[in-house]
Amino acid sequence: KQEVTQIPAALSVPEGENLVLNCSFTDSAIYNLQWFRQDPGKGLTSLLLIQSSQREQTSGRLNASLDKSSGRSTLYIAASQPGDSATYLCAVETSGSRLTFGEGTQLTVNP
Amino acid sequence: GAVVSQHPSWVICKSGTSVKIECRSLDFQATTMFWYRQFPKQSLMLMATSNEGSKATYEQGVEKDKFLINHASLTLSTLTVTSAHPEDSSFYICSAASLGQNYGYTFGSGTRLTVV
Predict the structure, then answer these.
(1) CB distance from A89 to chain B under 8 Å?
(2) Within an 8 Å CB–CB cutoff, is residue A31 touching chain B?
(3) What letter does residue A31 receive in the DSSP assignment?
(4) Counting Cβ atoms within 10 Å, is residue A110 exposed (0-12), middle (13-18) or buried (19+)?
(5) Tens of pLDDT along B41-99?
(6) Min CA distance, A48 vs chain B (Å)?
């Protein structure tokens, strides 16, 4: 059974700091890995999708890497802003089109 | 980009009544839709997967007679919580995918259900 773990569970940083969120998964037989953002009481916004054959994806200040063999992914956020405050979820897709989510990292960026 | 509309965004109902939640893919045909449940400060738990025109596949522990899922068209899926009880109060989120297109998954904005 696939298990996804995210570290840290919560993170508070001052504005402008670069930060890294971590995601690990137990079964490396994945199709892709996706990072989402969730604001309180809202749905999920897709940030980055990395296919299993890819090593990283970039979008603006966000960079996500994937090391499938070791079961790890990182989300790097450069020059953090208060508007980045949210919960960040990673999810892996495995056979049967199943998405397994981590429990998320709650990020607070202080002005 | 792909957009999924979910309604209502919140609903309060009395115990014993039924509530229907709609999930629509606005600009693409969703071959598969997924329904998740999320408790406060927890991650999403998959409840069921539905393919257009087929019966939904429910995850272990999810009562199919209580959580009725209909996916009658490529753009609409509904989740009906029947005979709701306070323990059904939760945040429900749908997701739609056009499998084989590598679009990833697009999520609705969620529905906060409170059963009183």
Answers:
(1) yes
(2) no
(3) S
(4) exposed
(5) 788 999 999 988 888 999 999 999 999 999 888 899 999 999 999 999 999 999 988 76
(6) 9
